[in-house]
């Protein structure tokens, strides 16, 4: 029942579960708080814990939403890596089950969610929409800040929203083995979790830098029965080729994708799963935004600004695409902002062109904002979001002008994360720290202008397994990468020449 609440996040104890009842809650003011994090006096804070007026406001959505159906210009199709012709369904069959191939190409507006998937969603959905009143107080801003929190899933992030249906569709078609890649480990964890529920074998190639830096993500996957390899590995031809060129390679998502795709393409009993970028993945994540629209309506709020972090783009799309539908229908008119790291700035520094989704050039060519398929972020980049390209559908929406993008350095992101953790209590994963930093920028701007904007932010997961990154920040050893323009240009030069 608690998950059906839309709560202010600054409750201390003893909130009433009776509809509409208010409580006066008490909290003490610490005399030892660092000056830059000291909250305003809160000897008494009035908090309203109210149920949504409409019981359906927090029902789990029964359908996924496909933004493509409402776009005035459809996105460019993926191309075959050898013929450069539009990909046909049979071209994808070695990698994906038939139903996911259909979802990848569909123009249908809504897709029914299978009952078996909804039953598992009930473990953590609906997820809470929380008002960050303590952060507002800390920033002394008139802005009203809300965040949609996806960290309550078993795997700790939004990734389970798509891992569960992907595994279910594979299980329905008799697939026994699944392979994938993972960067920070959130996607690998989510796929291992879902695979354990349906009895499928799961094999994961984890980017070497994250494999070494985040051992607990690896252990989490292994606990759910997955086999985990550091990437590049000597298990695949793609991995061995990279290791021959650079035995100490820190890896990249592009390399890890090449390894997983190679195994799927060469084993008839094995399929590949992807945690972001593709249309069917963004489709599954739309449950986030569909819930959030109803939750905001129930409390009488309309967002002026919606902010989400972007790596491959699934979390951002999941929150914003249903709102973009409402914007296209003339019901609301929020600014929509994607936030990426300056260490891997595909939207703000990349080019919009056809490029491979992996380093070895085995995947279809996708029209997307890209830094080049062999781009490798610096391993000292702690903030996640390491993929060289942006989801083609998000790239298309960006080109159509329905959203904006900004890149923020990692020290500012972690400064914001510390402020958030010490005011709101939740420790964010490194990825949503980008959205937090952008939210703080806007909230401080509202303090200067006096505007009481409503800011909605995507909080896509918790950072319990990412504490080494926080340790770097707290010890003062985290640095902002001075990004090399030459490195970007060298990578972009290797994009296929058909790019325009």
TrEMBL record:
Every Tryptophan synthase beta chain-like PALP domain range: 123-461
Membrane-spanning residues: none
Catalysis: reaction(s): (1S,2R)-1-C-(indol-3-yl)glycerol 3-phosphate + L-serine = D-glyceraldehyde 3-phosphate + L-tryptophan + H2O
Taxonomic placement: Eukaryota, Viridiplantae, Streptophyta, Embryophyta, Tracheophyta
Subunit description: Tetramer of two alpha and two beta chains.
Keyword Lyase belongs to the record: yes
Native source organism of the sequence: Cinchona calisaya
Major enzyme class: lyase
Keyword check for Cell inner membrane: no
Listed GO MF terms: tryptophan synthase activity
Protein name per UniProt: tryptophan synthase
Named cofactor requirement(s): pyridoxal 5'-phosphate
Alphabetical keyword list: Amino-acid biosynthesis, Aromatic amino acid biosynthesis, Lyase, Pyridoxal phosphate, Tryptophan biosynthesis
Family matches, as HAMAP family: Trp_synth_beta
